[in-house]
Every structure is written in structure tokens, then in C-alpha cells.
């Protein structure tokens, strides 16, 4: 809301010496937050001048300049004799523009004027062989709208030479741009802001709405016929007619200036006046060109599919949620939101029907939302207007049209319905003190509320508050508390640290996610945060099959990008984008990770229920709600490219390889004391021969390995990028309450090496698992060599394991060792066909 | 050096001759003194101490003497052997020390050579700051609550006193899930987590909810469609706005140090009443008269905007099944990303989210 300060001062007796900055600070403390103070920044002797004489002088550079003698009234300077023509008191000024002639009224900045657009102070200076004793100003130089390049030529007779042009053009005005919160509908008006300013400074307020509403009889002969068919949608409707307005009369400069300073365009007297009164009272007003209306105005709901072209030129398809004003031909206005084009006032309009109506706020909000139409009217109507104003608002418009447009007030006011009765608010007198923690006694509370226009009845410990009609937001006891605190001062709230009951610390999942984060950083991975949006282009680059479940996304109605129209089902989409960015920026070795949610839709048409708000939903209802939401587990994703061990002075490094990705996942699992199994797998976007499934209790919870060369090509990435993604929620859920118990023997170890021959297709992991399980004496079985070649048969490979044998209760005998070794061989043989290498 | 005796004279045996024993001793001591390397010492050991050394042979002869001569000869040879062994041990220690000294010098390296073969990881500051904030609240006995990011419309809006026609609903530029009748959104704040907490537990409730939230803002230097907040909620008997201020002041001090404070300005949020914007005392200039005017962080205001807060609207309590006659509470929220950009003077919010490793790396694993 833009509030010109001089306009505001008309309604509130603010101290003369109050600075705009102080005023704004106080209003901010009253919940009218200052966005900025707008002002022209122009100062000094900026005056009106009349061009008495104009001599065109051609210059050597080919330009023609005007050597002018300008009458600037009291500012004429006889001491500078160098002026063309006769010696009438004046000033000589050089001007390069040509859109003015002798006799025109212009704006002159005399020496000493500061124009921010120029960035320097005007002075008398010698130019083109003359002394230019000031400057004739253009719109751009003054920062006013209009022909920016041309000189401003004022309407003849609108001012006298020597008049202060700063005041005339409103250039000295400061405008408060205030942020008005949705609950303070009343502050979308000068009336409302002035009232708050009056409370804030404890000075008298002059209500612009305090005018005699009805000096014309209701239902007189000139009252325009109106039928309200739906009083729920429109509880109050007032209309008043003014005829015989002179369409040639311009809007008075002061009025045009005020609405322009308030951020609206000046269009014509009739339109400007309706806007002016809306700004003044906060009540939206609509004017119809009476000559274009056919028959009575009827207020009703729209039929589904009914159409109306509003005055912004948009043809709108309506529903029964929208209210219409119609005449005999059909819709002429979208009730409370915007008028129709067909009956719009034009510059030729002479007879006007002025409408001020109260519309149901939620209905307006819905219409504005579904029509995506946030007009000045809708903005006020959806927040709630003062329902007692309609008759006075139309009267105020009519008075101005009569006064400035030469119109005639028709006999008869149409007034249908009356302001709904507001419910009182009953609260304990100590509620303001209890809620705010500030010592506020009943007297202070009542004073604060009365200052806001409330009527308050005190009955022992109870207050009965009748809010004023312009405060539709005051409905609950706590609303009343805020009004009291606003007056008492938010800065009076003391600071008391509450003592919470002893808590249980972080949850297990929260603790473990932190540990995982630390482990990932320890693995040399840099955490990134990417946006969880993705789409078909991602899936195609990743080479997901057409029926891959990861293509099924939670989609968005209004995504920011058509490329990424839904929520991602995998962290790899974001990580690979990040990898592309990093490599594009010249980082050769990139090891990144992200921990975040992925979004997996439920089958079918999940719809989350919308419950009432008058009670807690039942546990079943909450379960239904949760069941409708997509599954959103935390995943961990990692991507590694370039060298995992960097080359340097000590020798060659080692590129990241498939096993690094697997190892990180295994490290995470062991951090959480979870046993995961690694299985050979084929899963996009991984290399079909270099992809490990991470298996937890027979469920695949992730994959790790090297990415498919085609995927890397699609992303424009270098070869051999490795990646992993694993369901962190699943890992955390499997993490035991108590970790692995330390269990070791202090008896001596026996070491045995075992070289086995198996088919090349046998996974080493299977052999290792068989060996480890073969005997309780086998402490560990570690693979230390893999060999294929001449020394083993075709189609076979040799796997060499180092066994460590130990008993918990004794030193092993040679017999123990031999038995364990044979058991290992037999078990591995049975499980994998392994034989001892010859 | 002399060779061991080759002849054997049972009468004139060596141990009985003091001059012979002294000579053996002196020759041995001279050899020990002349030894420089471990090899020299080994040679000395063989020639003058070993089983076939003269003194060892002399010792062996003692057994063949008359008992009355044995004592004197034994003493004489024993003393000589003692002197030799002592000298040998001392010289061995000297030679080993010198040898070690030499080895250490030759093994010296240039320790300024870089050892940067392993990549160094780092955690995103949004993560570490969220954890830091969580720790501050946990230290106060609060717990950390979480909830889904795709959230039911009812929890994101209705339960928080943001009914379908509430003007503030359109102000929160919301991502809606397809189809619209699914009544799901990307949560626009972490407040639904507060609602979930009230719906599932009994007061007293003291929870902080850090998390990722979404608004349909185009990404630019100061806006992001994805950002992070932490919200707090306390529901108990007798809580007032003063407790809210006490909590925020403590929070400010825990993050920015002693002497920090907050101030309230009236504001509007549907889920709180009264509502306030909170400003944080500028943590750079502390609103000190001689510093504030030139302060870039607060632009000369002395205070920086920190977030929103207020007393929980009883309508929210009712929708979440908390008895507003018995309990009251407060809630607040601050932006985590903004805290980072402001504290680390990061001009462009996009740096947090484009995934360039050079953004995260300097933060290491702790802020
Ligand atoms: Zn500062």
C-alpha cells in the first residue's frame, strides 16, 4: 500500500516536525511494515516559468539552440542583463529542446536546484556564448511520467510564473510503501493507515468516512433498480447515479497526483474518482456507464460455463462459485472482482451508476484464485471490507463527480441489505498478560482496544469486546490480544527461557544419519545438495527401460521447468547433473555424495483426505492420510570420477573403479552394524557386467559399480565413472539397537593358505562365504589372489585365500588345523565346486 | 695381535704368568678401542673373547692346575676377562650409537613434499548448520522432529489455520502434486511437522524441525525453489510470548555468542496469534554507534531480519487435538540457507545448490 504522506496528514494531526522516517518506524511497530520511502529527491528553487521570448540560434556544430527569456515571477533576476528582447524582468535560459513555443508555461530549475536524475546541482553557466541562468526541465530530468525527452509544457492557466513547481508536480511528496499483512484489510486505505497513525502518536483522527451518508432518499425516482438474488454472496449493495458529467473536464491535478503517487494511473475524472475513494476508504467501487446498461442490475451466481469479458479484455469462463452482476443482456461484471468491458465507463461517459457492495470474502478469494485475477478490488474484498460503508462510499464518489465534473446527483439511493451483525468476543481480562508475558492490566487492555475502535465491556474478570466494522479480522480472543500488544508495544515482551522436561536426545535414525555423513566425508566424498526434480530426459540419459519403475514419478501441477516435471525417484539424477557441472568447470577428480529423500508414488490414484479443523483427526484418519502420501525414503547416493588415489611425486595413482563404490556402501553398512550381501546384478544406469546389488535380508536395497558407457556418453562424461545408491532408511532400520559384541580369543593364531580352483563364473564372494562358514575355528578367510591363465584349466580360475584359524579356549593342535582345513575345502567344494589347486 | 699358543706346557701354563695374562688383556683392549664399525667389533669378539681366543684358552687351563694355584690364576684371568667384556660392551654401545646417527642422517626426507593422494571429503554447510542448531535445542531438552516433504494439503495448510480460501494461502507459492485432487503439496514450510507432532503426542512438547521446503520461486541470486528452514514448537502449560523471546535469545547467543539478542515486530502468520517478525542484533556491528553506519551485513540498521514467530493460534491447537484452555505454546522459524549466505557473505544463493564441490570443500566437516 502506497501512502502519500501529505494525503495521510489530511486525516491525522501528526506533529508538524515529525519526520517521515520516524513516522514509518512507528507504523512498522504497528504492523504496517515499511518497505521503502519513495521520494523524488528534488530540492531547491524549481519554479513555473512563462517563455516570453525565444530566439533560435544555429551553432557551428549544426545544432540549433533556443535562447529564451523566461518570466519566473518573483525569481526574475535583473542583475543579469544578457537576455534577448525587451527588458521585462526575466531570466535568460538556453534550451536545446524544441517542443515548446513562446507563451508556454514550463518548469524551470533555477541555480541551486538539485535534480537526482542529473546528479549535480544546477548553476548559472556560460554556454553557447550566453549565460544560462537555470534550466528548462524535461520529464526525464524530473523523474515524472510523460514524454521523457521533451520539455514539460504545463496546461495554460494551470499555474502562474514563479509558482513552486515542486508542490505543483507533487515532487516534494514522500510516499510510504507499506507491506500490509492479510489480516489488516483496513490498512489498504488512507483511512486505515491514518487511524493507526493516530493511535501510534496519540493524536486526533479525522475519519474521511464520517460524512452524511444519506442526504438523498433511498428508492427515490432516480434510484437505479437493483435486484440481489443471492444475499449470501452479496449482503449489501448500494448504488447512486450522477448524470450530466462534463466528459471534457480533466481530473483535478491534486487528485490525479494523489492516485498516481499511490501507484494507480490517471485515466478520466470518473474512473479516477472511483479509485480515489477506494484508496481513501478502502472500499472498492465500480462505476457503470448508465447509457450502456439495459434494465435493472441483478446480482446472482454465475451458471457453470457462463462467460464474461472483463475490462482487462479477458473472456472468462465462470462457475457457480463466482458472483455476477447482470443486466437484461447478461453479465456486466464479475462481482467484487472486476467490471465487464461492455458497460465500462469511457472518456465520453456522462451518466454514471456508482456501485459499492459487500461481497462474501471467501467467495472473492476463490474467484480471484481460480481466475488468476488479483485486482485492487479483489485484494480488498477477499480480505474483508467495512460493511457499513457502501452508502457513504457511493455518496463520496457522487459528491466528487458533482463538484469536479459538473454532474447532477440523481434523486434516490439504492441500498439493499445491511451490514451483518458482528459477534462479540469474550475473553478473560488477564488473557493479554498471560499470552504475551507482559504486565498488562485491565485498564491498559481496555484503553488499547478502545483506541482501535473496539467497544469493551468489563465484567469482573471478563472482557466483552465488540470489534469495529472495519476490523473483520478480529474474531478470536487471541486476535484481541495482538491488538492490545500492538498498542502496548512488542518491545515490552520480556525474555524468559522456558525449562523443557528432560529430552531423549536425537532419535536413532537421526544419530545414524549423522554417522553416515561423517563416514562419507571420511571416504573423501564432498556432500552436495541438488534439487529433487527430474523428468524423462534424465531417465533417457540414464538408459532406464521404458517400463522401469523409476520412470513412475510424483508429478507436479506447476513445475518450474518442463524438463523436470516431477519429483526424482533416484539421487543419481541430481548427482550426475552435478558431476557434469564440476567436470565442465575443470575439476578432474570429483567424488560427490548426497543424502536425501526420493519420491516413490503409491499405486493407483492416491488422494490425501481433507479433514475438518474443529477437532483432531482420529488415528485411523491420520493413517489414511499418511497412506496416501508417496513413499519418501532417505537414500545415499555417491558418484566418483577421476583418480581415487591421486598421482603425484611418489608415483602413479589409481582411478576410481567399480569396487570403490561397493566399498563405500559396505563401509556404511558396517558403520551401522548391518550385514549386507553383494550380488552380481544388472541394473541401469550401471555397466551390466560391473554392477553389484546390495542385498539386505534378501531384499535389494541398492546398487553400486561402474556406470554404463552409453550413459556416460549421453551425459558427456569421461569413461569409468562409478556410482552407488542405497536405501538409507532400510539400512538404518536394520541397524541393531546394540552393535556387534567384541568377541576375540587370546590363544595363538594359525595361518593356512588355500588355493582353490573354480569355474570362472563362480562369484568369489560365494567361495569366501563358504570358507568363512566351514568351521568355527576359521576366524577369517581373506582372498589375496585371483589367477586365470596357463596354470589352471580353460574356463577355470584360481582363488587364493589366507585363512586365520583360532580357538576360543585352547591352542590349536596340528590335528585341529588339518580338520579345519579339510572342512573348508569340503564346504567350498560342496557350495561352489571348488577343488584344491594342484 | 698374537696368535693363540700352539704349544702346551703343563708346568709353565699361561694363567700362572701374570705378564702373559696382562699382555692378552692389553692386546684385547687395544683391539676394542681400535674398532670403528660393527664388523670390526665382531672380529674383536671372535679374536679376543670367543671360545678360541687366548684368554678363553687360558681360562680353560686353570682347571688343570693344582688346587692351591687355581685360586690365584682364576682371579688373574677373571679380572682380565672382566675388563675386556666391559670395554667391549662400552665400545659396542658407542659404535651402535654412531651407526644409528649415520643411518638417521641418510634417511632424512623433505617433509614439505605434498602428500595429497587421498581425496578430502566435506559436508554441506546446510547439513552441518542444521546439526549445530539441533544440538543447541537438544541441549535445552528439546527433541528433533521430522516429516515428509510431499505433504498432505490438510497438514500443510488447513490444520495450520490456512483454510482453502485464506488469502495467505496464495501468498505461499505452492508446488501442487498432480492431480490437484490428490490434495498434496511440496511442503511450503516445516510447520506440518509441528502439526504432526501435536497430532501424535501429548504435551509438554518441545521440538525443533529442520528440513527442506519448497516454493515456486524461480532460482536467482536471492531466491530458490528449494530451501531449508528450522522451526521450533513448544506446547506446555503457561507458555507465553516471553518464553518465545527467551528461547530465541538463547538460540541467538548459542549460535552468535554472548550479548546477542532479538527484537520483535508485529506481523501476521495464520498459525500464530499474536505473530511477530524477529530481528537479530547484527552479529557484526552489534548496533554499536561507531560501527553500525558502515556495516554491510545489516546495511546500517543494527539488526538483521531473522525469521517469523508467535504464539500458536488456538485454532491450530484445536485442529491438532490440544486443549487450548489448558495448554498454550509458541512457534518460530528461521531460514538456514539465508543464515549461511549472510554469515559467510555469499552473494549468490545459487552457489548452495548447483553442486560445485568448491562450494562445499572449504566448510570441511564442521562449520
Ligand atoms: Zn551491522
Keywords:
heterodimer; A: 838 residues; alpha+beta; Phenylalanyl-tRNA Synthetase, Chain B, domain 1; OB fold (Dihydrolipoamide Acetyltransferase, E2P); Phenylalanyl-tRNA Synthetase, Chain B, domain 3; 7-stranded mixed beta sheet; 43 strands; 26% helix; elongated; B: 367 residues; BirA Bifunctional Protein, domain 2; 2 domains; two-stranded antiparallel ribbon; 13 helices; binds zinc ion
Please characterize this protein's 3D structure.
The complex is a heterodimer of chains A (838) and B (367). Chain A has 22 helices and 43 strands. Chain A is α+β, with helices and mostly antiparallel strands and 838 residues long. In chain A, the strands form 12 sheets. Chain A has a 7-stranded mixed beta sheet, sandwiched between helices. In chain A, strand 27 and strand 28 form a beta hairpin. Chain A is elongated, with a radius of gyration of 41 Å. In chain B, the strands form 2 sheets. A 7-stranded mixed beta sheet of chain B has the order 1-4-5-9-8-7-6, with helices on both faces. The N terminus of chain B is likely disordered. Chain B has 13 helices and 9 strands. In chain B, helix 1 packs parallel to helix 4. Chain B has 2 domains: 93 residues; 239 residues, Bira Bifunctional Protein, Domain 2 (BirA Bifunctional Protein, domain 2), CATH 3.30.930. Chain B has 367 residues and is of the alpha+beta class. The interface between A and B is large, with 118 and 108 residues. The complex binds zinc ion (ZN).
Amino acid at each position: 500500500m502506497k501512502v502519500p504522506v501529505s494525503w495521510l496528514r489530511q486525516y491525522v494531526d501528526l506533529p508538524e516536525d515529525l519526520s517521515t522516517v520516524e513516522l514509518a518506524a512507528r507504523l512498522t511497530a504497528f504492523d504496517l511494515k515499511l518497505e521503502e520511502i519513495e521520494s523524488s529527491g528534488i530540492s531547491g528553487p524549481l519554479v513555473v516559468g512563462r517563455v516570453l521570448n525565444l530566439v533560435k540560434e544555429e551553432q557551428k556544430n549544426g545544432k540549433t539552440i533556443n535562447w529564451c527569456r523566461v518570466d519566473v515571477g518573483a525569481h526574475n533576476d535583473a542583475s543579469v542583463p544578457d537576455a534577448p528582447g525587451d527588458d521585462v524582468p526575466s531570466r535568460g535560459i538556453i534550451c536545446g529542446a524544441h517542443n515548446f513555443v513562446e507563451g508556454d508555461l514550463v518548469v524551470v530549475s533555477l541555480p541551486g536546484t538539485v535534480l537526482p536524475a542529473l546528479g549535480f546541482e544546477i548553476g548559472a553557466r556560460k554556454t553557447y556564448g550566453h549565460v544560462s541562468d537555470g534550466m528548462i526541465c524535461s520529464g526525464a530530468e524530473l523523474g515524472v511520467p510523460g514524454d521523457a525527452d521533451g520539455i514539460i509544457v504545463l496546461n495554460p492557466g494551470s499555474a502562474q510564473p514563479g509558482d513552486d513547481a515542486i508542490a505543483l508536480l507533487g515532487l516534494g511528496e514522500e510516499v510510504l510503501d507499506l507491506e500490509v499483512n492479510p489480516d489488516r484489510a483496513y490498512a489498504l486505505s488512507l483511512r486505515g493507515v491514518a487511524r493507526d497513525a493516530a493511535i501510534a502518536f496519540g493524536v486526533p483522527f479525522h475519519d474521511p468516512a464520517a460524512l452524511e451518508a444519506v442526504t438523498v432518499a433511498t428508492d427515490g425516482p432516480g434510484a437505479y433498480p437493483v435486484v440481489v438474488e443471492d444475499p449470501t454472496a452479496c449482503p449489501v449493495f448500494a448504488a447512486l447515479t450522477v448524470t450530466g458529467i462534463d466528459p471534457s473536464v480533466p481530473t483535478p491535478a491534486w487528485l490525479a497526483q494523489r492516485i498516481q503517487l499511490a501507484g494507480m494511473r490517471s485515466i478520466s475524472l470518473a474512473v479516477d474518482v472511483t479509485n480515489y475513494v477506494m484508496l481513501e476508504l478502502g472500499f472498492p467501487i465500480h462505476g457503470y456507464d448508465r447509457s450502456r446498461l439495459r434494465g435493472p442490475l441483478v446480482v446472482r451466481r454465475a451458471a457453470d460455463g457462463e462467460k464474461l469479458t472483463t475490462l482487462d479484455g479477458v473472456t472468462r469462463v465462470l462457475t457457480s462459485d463466482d458472483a455476477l452482476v447482470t443486466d437484461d443482456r447478461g453479465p456486466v461484471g464479475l462481482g467484487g472482482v472486476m467490471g465487464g468491458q461492455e458497460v465500462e465507463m469511457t472518456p465520453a461517459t456522462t451518466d454514471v451508476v456508482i456501485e459499492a457492495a459487500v461481497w462474501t470474502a471467501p467467495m472473492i478469494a476463490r474467484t480471484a484464485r481460480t481466475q488468476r485475477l488479483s485486482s485492487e478490488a479483489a485484494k480488498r474484498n477477499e480480505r474483508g471490507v467495512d460493511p457499513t460503508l457502501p452508502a457513504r462510499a457511493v455518496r463520496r464518489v457522487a459528491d466528487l463527480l458533482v463538484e469536479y465534473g459538473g454532474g447532477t446527483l440523481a434523486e434516490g439511493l439504492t441500498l439493499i441489505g445491511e451490514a451483518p451483525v458482528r459477534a462479540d468476543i469474550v475473553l478473560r481480562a488477564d488473557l493479554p498478560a498471560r499470552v504475551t508475558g507482559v504486565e498488562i492490566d485491565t485498564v491498559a487492555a481496555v484503553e488499547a482496544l478502545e483506541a482501535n475502535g473496539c467497544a469493551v465491556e468489563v465484567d469482573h474478570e471478563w472482557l466483552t469486546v465488540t470489534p469495529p466494522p472495519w476490523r473483520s479480522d478480529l474474531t478470536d480472543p487471541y486476535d484481541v490480544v495482538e491488538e492490545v500488544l500492538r498498542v502496548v508495544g512488542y518491545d515490552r515482551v520480556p525474555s524468559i527461557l522456558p525449562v523443557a522436561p528432560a529430552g531423549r536426545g536425537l532419535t536413532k535414525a537421526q544419530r545414524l544419519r549423522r554417522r553416515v555423513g561423517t563416514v562419507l566425508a571420511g571416504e573423501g566424498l564432498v556432500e552436495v545438495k541438488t534439487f529433487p526434480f527430474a523428468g524423462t530426459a534424465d531417465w533417457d540419459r540414464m538408459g532406464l527401460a521404458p517400463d522401469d519403475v523409476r520412470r513412475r514419478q510424483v508429478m507436479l501441477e506447476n513445475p518450474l521447468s518442463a524438463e523436470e516435471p516431477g519429483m526424482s525417484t533416484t539421487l543419481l539424477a541430481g548427482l550426475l547433473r552435478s558431476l557434469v557441472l564440476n567436470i565442465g568447470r575443470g575439476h578432474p577428480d570429483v567424488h560427490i555424495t548426497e543424502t536425501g529423500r526420493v519420491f516413490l508414488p503409491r499405486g493407483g490414484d492416491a488422494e490425501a483426505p481433507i479433514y475438518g479443523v474443529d477437532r483432531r483427526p482420529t488415528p485411523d484418519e491420520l493413517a489414511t492420510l499418511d497412506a496416501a502420501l508417496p513413499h519418501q525414503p532417505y537414500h545415499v547416493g555417491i558418484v566418483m570420477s577421476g583418480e581415487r588415489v591421486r598421482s603425484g611425486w611418489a608415483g602413479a595413482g589409481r582411478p576410481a573403479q567399480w569396487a570403490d563404490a561397493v566399498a563405500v556402501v559396505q563401509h556404511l553398512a558396517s558403520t551401522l552394524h548391518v550385514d549386507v550381501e553383494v550380488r552380481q546384478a544388472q541394473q541401469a544406469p550401471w555397466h551390466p557386467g560391473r554392477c553389484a546389488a546390495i542385498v539386505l535380508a534378501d531384499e535389494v536395497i541398492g546398487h553400486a559399480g561402474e556406470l554404463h558407457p552409453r550413459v556416460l556418453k549421453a551425459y558427456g562424461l569421461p569413461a569409468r565413472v562409478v556410482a552407488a545408491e542405497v536405501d538409507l532408511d532400510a539400512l538404518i532400520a536394520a541397524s541393531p539397537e546394540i552393535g556387534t559384541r567384541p568377541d576375540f580369543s587370546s590363544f595363538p593364531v594359525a595361518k593356512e593358505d588355500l588355493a582353490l580352483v573354480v569355474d570362472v563364473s563362480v562369484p568369489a564372494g560365494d567361495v569366501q562365504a563358504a570358507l568363512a562358514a566351514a568351521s568355527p575355528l576359521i576366524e577369517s578367510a581373506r582372498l589375496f589372489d585371483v589367477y586365470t591363465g596357463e596354470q589352471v584349466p580353460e574356463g577355470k580360475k584360481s582363488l587364493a585365500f589366507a585363512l586365520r584359524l583360532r580357538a576360543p579356549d585352547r591352542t590349536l593342535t596340528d590335528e585341529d588345523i588339518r580338520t579345519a582345513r579339510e572342512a573348508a575345502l569340503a564346504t567350498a567344494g560342496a557350495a561352489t565346486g571348488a577343488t584344491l589347486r594342484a | 695381535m698374537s696368535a693363540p699358543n700352539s704349544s702346551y706346557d703343563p708346568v709353565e701354563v699361561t694363567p700362572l704368568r701374570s705378564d702373559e695374562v696382562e699382555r692378552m688383556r692389553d692386546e684385547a683392549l687395544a683391539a676394542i678401542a681400535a674398532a670403528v664399525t660393527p664388523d670390526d667389533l665382531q672380529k674383536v669378539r671372535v679374536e679376543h673373547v670367543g671360545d678360541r681366543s687366548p684368554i678363553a684358552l687360558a681360562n680353560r687351563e686353570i682347571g688343570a692346575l693344582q688346587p692351591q694355584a687355581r685360586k690365584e690364576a682364576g682371579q688373574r684371568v677373571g679380572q682380565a676377562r672382566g675388563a675386556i667384556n666391559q670395554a667391549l660392551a662400552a665400545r659396542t654401545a658407542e659404535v651402535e650409537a654412531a651407526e644409528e646417527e649415520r643411518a638417521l642422517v641418510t634417511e632424512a626426507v623433505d617433509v614439505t613434499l605434498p602428500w595429497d593422494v587421498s581425496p578430502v571429503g566435506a559436508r554441506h554447510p546446510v547439513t552441518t548448520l542444521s546439526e549445530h542448531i539441533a544440538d543447541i535445542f537438544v541441549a535445552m531438552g528439546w527433541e528433533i522432529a521430522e516429516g515428509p516433504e510431499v505433504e498432505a494439503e490438510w497438514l500443510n495448510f488447513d490444520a495450520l489455520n490456512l483454510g482453502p480460501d485464506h488469502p495467505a494461502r496464495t501468498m505461499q507459492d505452492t508446488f501442487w502434486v498432480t492431480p490437484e485432487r490428490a490434495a498434496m503439496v511440496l511442503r511450503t514450510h516445516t510447520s506440518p511437522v509441528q502439526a504432526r507432532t501435536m497430532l501424535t503426542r501429548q504435551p509438554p512438547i518441545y521440538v525443533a524441525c529442520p528440513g527442506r521446503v519448497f516454493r515456486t520461486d524461480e532460482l536467482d541470486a536471492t531466491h530458490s525453489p528449494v530451501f531449508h528452514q528450522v522451526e521450533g514448537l513448544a506446547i506446555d502449560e503457561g507458555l507465553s510470548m516471553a518464553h518465545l523471546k527467551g528461547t530465541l535469545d538463547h538460540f541467538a547467543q548459542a549460535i552468535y555468542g554472548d550479548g546477542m539478542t532479538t527484537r520483535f515486530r508485529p506481523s501476521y502468520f495464520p498459525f500464530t496469534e499474536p505473530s511477530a517478525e524477529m530481528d537479530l542484533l547484527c552479529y557484526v556491528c552489534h548496533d554499536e554507534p561507531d560501527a553500525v553506519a558502515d556495516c554491510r551485513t545489516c546495511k546500517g540498521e543494527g539488526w538483521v531480519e531473522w525469521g517469523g514467530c508467535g504464539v500458536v493460534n488456538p485454532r491450530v491447537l484445536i485442529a491438532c487435538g490440544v486443549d487450548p484452555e489448558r495448554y498454550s505454546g509458541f512457534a518460530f522459524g528461521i531460514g538456514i540457507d539465508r543464515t549461511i549466505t549472510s554469515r559467510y557473505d555469499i552473494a549468490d544463493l545459487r552457489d548452495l545448490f548447483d553442486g560445485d564441490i568448491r562450494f562445499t570443500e572449504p566448510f570441511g566437516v564442521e562449520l
